[in-house]
Design brief:
By secondary structure, the protein is α+β, with helices and mostly antiparallel strands. It contains 21 helices and 26 strands. InterPro entries: HET, HetReg/Transcr_Mod, WW_dom.
């Protein structure tokens, strides 16, 4: 037996393919905690079954020791000869609660199973974190000991979840007829749940564990998750049902919006693995090291996985954020991360085109539209670490409202938000009959308030049509409207969109007559651009001492340019651009049920390229190019792909929509140096 003293870690295999597993030796709650370690290889097909603990680090180390058995258990009288560790208080408490009375329990827990003082090992182990949680037989979520509200909170979850069914894509839910959940949804005040039930649930989801950044991959990659609060347990899937139900179905008077958003992001759904969504939701979480905004998400997003980033804690935060931004743009050839840029809150050592992923951002930054018309581009490096991109200038800002819509406050009422809109109203709102790209100023203003969410574009049953939006605005929201009409159920669809408490925008006008809204700090003189590869317009600020150089201010919504009008021109009469279920865009003519992927504004395909709308994976090779472009239902659209008859290259991207293809098609582009 080795001598006592602070535990000295035995180095893991230098290959980085091994982990330490901890065996928690049996004992009663009041007993000292005894552990032993083994090294386990990822290469072994028959790995020792183990559980992972997901918890918060919490308060500093406790003076209480946990004892490490290096070889084999001995008599307790030898405890002074054992090496020891001082775990943090929350972890020590968790070990005591989950320890079995008469059986060893094999677990993995980051604070102890990784030598935290060894930077090389720490970086290697963080790279394997996704595998570690994925291979575990079970992930045990430790929320902490029970308190006076725990029992009621878990009871609330059990009762509600019994009546909730999740939709196939896990984006929404429905309630089972005659269940308690249905009563809550339809007749909230008649349900048997008291305010204390909701307050206890709120207390549970506001425990520190839910704020922790690393928990995302810990639960999302697990094959099974069990939640522990003291000795009480509940299934993770039941919590998922209740969180989605609270988000989608009931008045959130007892919950803070940021808490719901944070919890909701723990549960993946179709479309939620984009890097912009992952990083946006992560910004609501807590971590002691901002570099973990990248490292903690290496396994939570398919787009992040594709970048193949390796943790390196020798990098500064600015360096790793820039490195990831570069990798993303180079790999995916789009500028979607620009939607997360925020010049006002940018640290001094950051380039303006590199988002600070560690700052909270409103949901306005999540909205991907079609301003780029599906185009693609990558960076071109210039001197001094700056980059050059191509696109077109749209307008110059002249006139910014002093009233900004607040971000995520549970006390915010419809009246507060609508008062902001009254301050936004242009003086000529009802008299200006012309607007750039068509329609009236009123038409544009109505769409800006809802960020363009309407049934014609998004094809969702709960959304209002464009005409219904206009009628709702004039009846209930306009400064001269009847305020009592806010309660009219007829106007609920539009009202629900314009009073979202997840968005925080400021209104602006331009020299050219456009109006728009932005979640960032725009100023007079800023330039609105449509950049190739950026799905929304990007606001740029000219650099006074550098010709043709700009800082990225952030994204904006500019009515009249959201569907590629400034790159490809306006859509032909009666044509609509519509969002597909799987976050792509298709086109259809009004009055027709036919849907096509092919943008009607595009020019003919180059002679050596074929566009295909059949199965990309057909082992028989490409067809003769005669496959159908039109389908009766949007859900039947097959993703298009393209075949180069000269090189035999297959691609999922239209060759007309990269920089070379655009310029070959006669599209004139400008260069922007971003600093």
């Amino acid at each position: 037996m080795e001598g006592g003293g602070q535990f000295v870690y035995h180095a893991l295999d230098p290959s980085g393919n091994t982990i330490r597993l901890l065996t928690l030796l049996p004992g009663q709650f009041s007993d000292k905690v005894h552990l032993s370690f083994t090294h386990e290889s990822f290469q072994d097909e028959k790995r020792t079954p183990y559980e992972c603990i997901s918890y918060t680090w919490g308060e500093p180390q406790t003076p209480e020791k946990v004892y490490i058995w290096q070889k084999s258990p001995a008599n307790v009288s030898n405890v002074d000869s054992l090496q020891f560790l001082h775990p943090r208080i929350n972890l020590l408490t968790a070990l005591k609660y989950i320890r079995l009375a008469d059986t060893p329990r094999v677990i993995w827990v980051d604070a102890i199973c990784i030598d935290q003082d060894n930077i090389t090992e720490r970086s290697q182990q963080v790279a394997h974190m996704g595998q570690i949680y994925n291979y575990a037989a079970q992930v045990l979520v430790w929320l902490g000991p029970e308190d006076e509200s725990t029992s009621m909170a878990l009871e609330t979850i059990e009762r509600l979840s019994a009546g909730i069914l999740l939709t196939e894509d896990h984006r929404n839910c429905k309630t089972i007829p005659r269940s308690e959940a249905e009563v809550v949804e339809r007749r909230f005040n008649e349900s048997k749940f008291t305010p204390q039930h909701w307050k206890s649930l709120n207390q549970l989801i506001r425990r520190p564990w839910f704020e922790r950044l690393w928990i995302r991959q810990e639960v999302q990659l697990a094959s099974k998750v069990l939640v522990r609060c003291g000795y009480a347990e509940i299934e993770w899937g039941k919590i998922e049902k209740v969180i989605i139900f609270v988000e989608q179905k009931i008045n959130r008077v007892y919950f803070r919006v940021e808490d719901i958003l944070r919890c909701r992001s723990l549960f993946p759904y179709i479309g939620s693995d984009s890097l912009t969504y992952t990083l946006h939701r992560s910004s609501f979480c807590k971590c002691s090291d901002h570099r973990d905004m990248v490292y903690a998400n290496l396994s939570t997003s398919s787009e992040m996985k594709a970048l193949q980033i390796k943790p390196n804690y020798n990098f500064t935060t600015a360096k790793i954020f820039k490195y990831m931004t570069y990798k993303y743009v180079q790999h995916f050839k789009n500028l979607e991360l620009f939607r997360l840029c925020d010049l006002k809150n940018l640290p001094r050592d950051f380039k303006s085109f590199v988002p600070n992923f560690a700052t909270q951002k409103p949901d306005s930054r999540l909205f991907s539209v079609y301003a780029h018309a599906g185009t693609r581009q990558s960076f071109v490096d210039t001197e001094g670490g700056n980059v050059k991109v191509k696109g077109r200038k749209v307008a110059k800002i002249q006139g910014v409202s002093t009233a900004q819509k607040p971000l995520v406050k549970n006390t915010l009422s419809h009246t507060d938000i609508i008062k902001t809109y009254h301050q936004w109203e242009p003086e000529d709102l009802m008299t200006c009959t012309t607007y750039p790209q068509g329609g009236t100023l009123l038409d544009a203003f109505v769409m800006i308030l809802s960020n363009g969410f309407c049934k014609e574009t998004y094809h969702l049953s709960h959304l209002p049509t464009i005409q219904e939006s206009k009628e709702s605005f004039l009846a209930a929201i306009w400064s001269r409207a009847d305020a009592s009409q806010i309660k009219n159920s007829k106007f609920k669809p539009y009202l629900g969109e314009v009073t979202s408490d997840r968005r925080s925008e400021i209104f602006f006008q331009t020299v050219e007559g456009y109006i728009g809204a932005s979640p960032t700090d725009v100023q007079d003189g800023d330039i609105i651009s449509v950049l190739v590869g950026a799905s929304v317009p990007i606001v740029l600020r000219p650099v006074t001492d550098h010709q043709d150089a700009y800082q990225v201010v952030g994204p904006c919504f500019l009515q009249g340019v959201m569907f590629g009008e400034f790159l490809l021109g306006p859509l032909p009469d009666d044509w609509l651009c519509v969002r597909h279920d799987y976050r792509r865009w298709y086109f259809r003519q009004q009055g027709s049920e036919n849907r096509i992927w092919e943008d009607p504004r595009l020019w003919p395909m180059p002679s050596h390229w074929q566009a295909h709308f059949c199965d990309f994976d057909d082992s028989n090779g490409p067809c003769d190019g005669s496959c159908e472009l039109k389908y009766e239902k949007a859900a039947q659209l097959i993703n298009p792909w393209f075949f180069n008859t000269q090189s035999k290259e297959r691609s999922e991207y239209d060759p007309r929509l990269d920089l070379q293809g655009l310029e070959a098609g006669g599209i004139e582009l400008e260069s922007f140096t971003l600093v």
